[in-house]
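Data card: per-record layout.
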Amino acid sequence: MNKYNLSKNSMRNIIFGFILNLLNLLGAFFSRTLLIYILGVEYVGLEGLFSSILMMLNMADLGFGSAIVYKLYKPIAENDTNKVCAFINYYQKIYRCIGTFIFILGILVLPFIDRIVNTSVPIGVNIEVLFLIYLLNASLSYWMFAYKKAILNAHQRNDLESKINSIVVIIRYVLQVFILYTIHDYYVYVIILPIMTFFSNVGNALLVKKYYPQYICKGRLSDEEKGELKSKIIALFYNKLGVTLINGSDNIIISLFLGLTMSGIYSSYYYIFNMLHKFFEVMHTAVTGGIGNRIVTESTDKNYELFKLINFGNLWLVGWCSICLCCLYKPFIMIWIGKSKALTAWFSLLMAIYFYFWMIRFVVIIFKNAQGLWWDDRFRATIEGVFNLVLNIFLVIKIGIYGIVVSTILAMIIVSIPWETKVLFKNYFNKSTKEYYLTMIKMTLITIVMGLFTYSLCKMIEDKGIISFLIKLLICIVVPNVCEGILCYRNEQFKKIRIWIFQESKTKKKNLSL
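The structure for this 514-residue chain is written out next.
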């Protein structure tokens, strides 16, 4: 049975994933900045609105990709090539149907697009044509070799995908920035998206063919295997429905109730949130395959110790990033898109809390997905999503843009966190959740204390541009981490992390000397 080196593979995936996300961050920042200053913030609102609508349509994939990757862990560990081929053959057929279905759904939505936009669109813009381009881009990702990414994910070779996508991202943003700067044409700016999706998918397909030529689309799954896969997909559909209602409804509701300009401002705030989230998602994707392999090859007790270690590191990082968001959100927005587009410090605090509760669930979700515990969790995300949607509509009327964020935070605290934690601990670890919650409460209290101290230091510095922002950034980097290092120095998990870092550093030095 094949055992992967979780540390080595995860680190490789994280490094190249970070490079990809950094390129995405810089490229999107420059292109979005030009979009705001050359064409207007309403165009950012349109971009966010179309993305939200397409996120709703993308529910059509039912979470099929996650189910397939989960089913590949065992045959790959057992070197069962025929079984892997049968799964990806089935995957290919289903994904092509999904891409077609999404395109048809989009065509049906097309006549109602103008009604979703509450305010008038920018002069000379045909939103139907723009929506068709975005729709084509979404469908292409399913029509062209998307199924082959499952092989890279299951083999923990996300770094290969990141390398190809990094090249594509550089070309995409260079072209988009050039188009905005020279001809100011939003249509040409958008048409770049499906073209780059085409090259990205072709590149990934060629990589899979090079590194894993043994996997070709052939063979059939048994009725029993299809039935088992179907149960996973049904459970994942409920999950995806909830996530889509949470993430996809915000811009639509803002556009309906508050207009396209406010949607553009919120999209700018959410852009920063999402970029930071994507860096965590890199780590999520990097370790999920390795944890799936460990679940097949190691004992539950060993994996619980790994869970505690990763969870501690995650709580540290999430707490630090949340403090940075709270202290730096408003001054950054003021520098980036202007003081008139910056919302209050309270909104920055709410976005930081939103980020904190969204990301502390990170490790539970990784282990739950790696174990395939979707059936027991199937109604959780849907209930959370409906709860969030109803509260969204009620609170946006009462308190405006703040209500969008408050509703999501309440939905996570009341529904999602306790439910998904119980599912993992009851169905896999078979342990009490007491230790997990005590760790979470302790680390959250430390984050609050450090956050208040860091914010009070940053508050002493008046917002006067880039220099004052950089000073605040330095404070946010140093103060929380030094304080947390002192407070957690004797923590068992922190000791293990320090030992691991020391051993990794020692190994690298030894290899260099050889």
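Known properties of this structure: The chain has two domains: 1-244, 299-504. Confidence is low (pLDDT under 50) at residues 508-514.

See the next section for split statistics.
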